[in-house]
Amino acid sequence: MTGSDRTILLRGVRPLGRTPVDLRVAGGRIAEIAPRLEPDGAEVIDGAEQILLPGLVDLHTHLREPGREDTETVATGSAAAALGGFTAVHAMANTDPVADTAEIVEQVHKLGEQAGLVDVRPVGAVSAGLAGQRLAELGNMARSAARVRVFSDDGRCVADSRLLRRALEYLKPFDAVLAQHAQDPRLADGSACAHEGELSGRLGLPGWPAVAEAGIIARDVMLAEHVGGRLHVCHVSTAESVEVLRWAKQRGIDVTAEVTPHHLLLTCDLLAGYDPVYKVNPPLRPEEDVQALRAALADGTIDAVATDHAPHAPQDKDHAFADAAFGMLGLQTALGVVIETMLRPGHLDWAGLADRMSVRPAVIGRLTGHGRPLAVGEPANLTLVAAEQDWLVVPQALASIATNTPYAGRRLPGPVTATLLRGRLTARDGRLVGREGLA
Amino acid sequence: MNRHLLSAADLSAEQALQILDSAEQMDAIQQREVKKLPALRGRTVVNLFFEDSTRTRSSFEIAGKWLSADVINVSAKGSSVSKGESLRDTALTVAALGVDAIVVRHSASGAVQRVAGWVDAHVINAGDGTHEHPTQALLDAFSLRRRLGELAGRHVVIVGDLTHSRVARSNVLLLRTLGAQVTLVAPPTLMPSGVSSWDCETSWDLDATLAGKVAGDVDAVMMLRVQRERMGGGAAGGGVGYFPTEREYAIGYGLSPARLALLPEHAPVLHPGPMNRGLEISSLAADSDRSLVLAQVRAGVAVRMAVLYHVVAGADRAAAPIPAEVNA
Questions:
Q1: Domain locations along chain A
Q2: Alpha helical stretches, state H, B149-219
Q3: Which residues of chain B are within 8 Å of residue A189 when distances are taken between CB atoms?
Q4: How far apart are CA A372 and CA A381, in angstroms?
Q5: Which residues of B touch A278 (CB under 8 A)?
C-alpha cells in the first residue's frame, strides 16, 4: 500500500538544511510542519539529521524509448530518476522515431504515467526528424496531452539562423522554451570529440573548440532578444560561454542555461587513456572551465543543473574513442556530484542547491507542482538526503539498463534516503517502493 | 622491454638504442642468403589492419616471417563499426585464436591502446589515426643514424601536415628521447593545437628554417605527405581546405630544388611515403643521393624484426641478447 492516501511522517528532517522539524504528508501534500508531531497511524520515516529538499527536476534526460529499449526504457529511467532523488524529468526528443509529433510525445508521457515513479515531461523536437530543415509540429505537441513546454534538437544544434528565429517566434504563444545544443557544426562537426587544446593535439583526437559553443550562444541570445523568445542553453561547458550568458542576462535577455554534473567535476585530462566512458558532447573541458562553471552556477548565471543522462550499450562504447557514442549516465549520481562540487566547497548552501536542481528547472520547464517551497499545502514532491554519508557507485547496481557511468568505484556524498512523488514514496534507502520487478 | 609498443614515448633512450642496435644486426642478416632466424619459432603474430596499408603491413609480415613466426594477416577494414561489431569483440576474437602478438593499424586515434587493454597478447602499434606510428619513427631514426651517426645534438626539421600526422608525433617523441633537436614547419592551419607546448621548435617559414635562421643549422629534413583526402572538398577538410591550392602549398612548403640547395651538404631528405611528387617534394629532391626514401623502406623490415624480437621474444627478459645464430 503506497497510495497517496497513506500519511507519512518525516521525523527530524532539516528543510533546506535548517532546524530539524517533523513534517506530515497527507493527501499528496505537505499537511503539517511542527517541531514535534505524533504519528497518528502514519508511516514514520526517521530522517534525523537528514536534509529535506523539494524533489529534484531534470531538464535534460535521455530515456531512449522508443527506439533503444536495450539501453534504457521510460520505466528504468524513471527508476534511476526516483533513486537519484528526482520527481520530474524532461525526456529528450532524440528517440527513434523522433519525438516530433503529438503522437510520440503523448506515448512517452503515457509510458511515464504507467511507470509512475516521476513525472516524465517529453521534450519535443524543434525540427522535423531533428534534421534542422523545417519546423516540427510545435503547436500540436504543446497542445497535446503531454503539454510540451521544452523543445530541443538536442544532440544537434539548430544551426540555421532562419530556422532558429522562426522557432523562437513560433513558440511564444505557448510560453515554451527552445533548448539549444550550442555547437557550431562548421567549427565542431560530428567527428569533434575532444576539447580542442594541447591534449587533443597530442592525442590526435578531432578538436571541439570552445568558440564553437560560445559563438552559437552569442548569436542565439541576440536572436532571442530580437524576437522576444525564450531561449535555454543546454549543457554549457566553457568559461567563454559563461561570459556571453552573463552579458546577455545583464542586458535583460530572456535566456537560461544549464550545466551537467560531469562538467562540474571531470576534466579533459581523463581522455588521455582514450576511454570512451569519458566521451560526452560537449566534451570534458580543462580545469579553468570547470571552475568558471562552478562560479557561474553559484552566482546564478547558470540557472540549473541538468544531467544529460545518456545511456549507451557496451557495443556502442567498446570502440576506438572517435567511433564510440557520446554520453554518460547521470540520474543517480547527479546529486552526489553537486554536493561534492558545489555544496561542500561552499559555492552553494542547501537552499541554493534546491534552487538550481529543483526550483529553477521547474520554472524553465513551466512545470507546476515541482520546485515548490517546503510549506504546508504544497504538493509533497520531496527528496530526503543523508548528507553526511556517502555511497559507492557500482555500475551494475544502478537502475539503468546501461552501465556507462564515469564514476564506477568512486564514493559520492549524500545518498538519497527517500523520494516522494505527490506524497507517495517512490524510493526508500536505495530501493524502489512498490515497484518490485522493475530494472 | 615493455609488454607492448604503443607509443614512441614508451621507449627510454636505452631501449630505443637497443632496438636500433638490434636492427643493425637484423639488417646484416638480410644480406645473407638464408635470412631466417629462429627467434620467434612457434609464435604467432597477427597483423590486424583496420585501415589499408601496403608497406607497413608487408614489412611487418616479412619481419615476422624472417624471425620464423607464423604470420597471419587479418584485414578488418570495415569489420568494426560498419558491420556492427565492436572493436572489443574484434580484438577478443583475434586474441582467442591464441596469438602471441597483434600488430594493429586503425584509422582512429587511441584504438590500439584500447586493444592493448583488452587482450593478453603483446600489442604493437602500426599506426593509430592521427596519433602515433612508433615503428615508423624507429625506422626513420635508424635511417638517420646510418647517415649521420649518433643523433644526440642533431637538428631534424619535419615539414608538412602535422595536424594529421602520426609520423610526426612519434618522431618528435623519439628524436627528443634520443637527444636530437626538432623543428616543426607548417602553415598555421596544419599545426596541431597546443603544439607550442611540445618539446620542439615550430615555424611557419620553411626557407628561414632550412637556412638555419630559426633554430640553427639543419642536419636532416623530413617531408610529410600531404593527405590530399583531408585537404579540401572532402568532408574532413570541411569543404574549405587547409590551404588555398596545391600550387600555393608547393610554393610555400614543398622541397623544391632551390630549397634542397639551402640544406647543408651532409643533410639527408626523408619521406615516409607514399610521396606526392611535385607537391610536398620535388622529383629532384626525392631522387637525389640525399634522399633516404628507399633506405627508409628497407630499414622498415630490420627495425620491425627488432621490435618484434624485443617486444615479443624478449618481453619477459630484462635484456634480450640476440641468439647466437644471429651473430654467426
A1: 8-52+377-389+408-432, 55-364
A2: 166-177, 206-210
A3: 235, 238
A4: 8
A5: none
Q: For residue A120, give every residue at least 6 positions away whose Cβ sits within 8 Å of its Cβ, in sequence order, or none.
A: A63, A74, A78, A88, A89, A91, A108, A109, A111, A112, A113
State the Cα–Cα distance between residues A271 and B240, nearest whole angstrom.
29
Of B81, B198, B238, the CB nearest to A189: B238
| Mutation for testing the A interface, residue in B83, B105, B109, B131 having most A CBs under 10 Å | B109
**Distance, CA of A245 to CA of A243 (rounded, Å):** 5
Nearest CA to CA, how far is B76 from chain A (Å)? Answer: 14
Cα A417 to Cα A433: distance, rounded to the nearest angstrom: 12
**Coil, strand or helix at A67:** coil
Alpha-carbon gap, residue B234 to A308, rounded angstroms: 32
Neighbours of B327 (CB within 10 A): 10
How are strands ordered across the β-sheet holding A177-180? A150-151, A177-180, A231-233, A255-259, A304-305
Calculate how close chain A gets to B88, using CA atoms only, in Å: 6
- The answer to whether A195 and A284 are in contact (CB under 8 A) is yes
- Select from B88, B169, B236 the Cβ nearest to the Cβ of A318: B88
Q: Are B177 and B16 in contact (CB under 8 A)?
A: yes
For residue A98, the SS3 value is coil
- Beta strands A150-151 and A119-122 are unpaired
- pTM score of the predicted model: 0.93
CATH number (3.20.20.70, 3.40.50.2000, 2.30.40.10, 3.40.605.10) of A8-52+377-389+408-432 reads: 2.30.40.10
Cβ–Cβ below 8 Å for A200 and B236: no
**Are the CB atoms for B126 and B136 separated by under 8 Å?**
no
Angle between helix axes A239-250 and A211-227 (nearest 10 degrees) is 20
3-class DSSP assignment, residue A26:
strand
Residue A212 Cα, gap to closest chain B Cα (Å): 14
Tens of pLDDT along A356-411?
999 999 999 999 999 999 999 999 999 999 999 999 999 999 999 999 999 999 99
Measure in Å the smallest separation between the Cα of A109 and chain B Cα atoms. Answer: 32
ipTM of the complex, rounded to two decimals: 0.88
Ordered alpha helix ranges (H), A350-401: 350-354, 360-364
> Containing H/E element for A137?
none
Question: Residue A55, SS3?
Answer: coil
Contacts of B235 in chain A (CB under 8 A): 189
Cα torsion B225, B229, B232, B235 to 10°: value is -140
pLDDT of residue B230: 67
CB within 8 Å: B110 and A320: yes
Q: List the single residue in A191, A200, A273 with the smallest CB-CB distance to B193.
A: A200
Question: CA A211 from chain center: how many Å?
Answer: 24
Catalytic residues of A: 308
Considering the domain delimited by A55-364, tell me its CATH architecture. Answer: Alpha-Beta Barrel (3.20)
pLDDT, tens digit (0-9, with 9 covering 90-100), for A265-285: 999 999 999 999 999 999 999
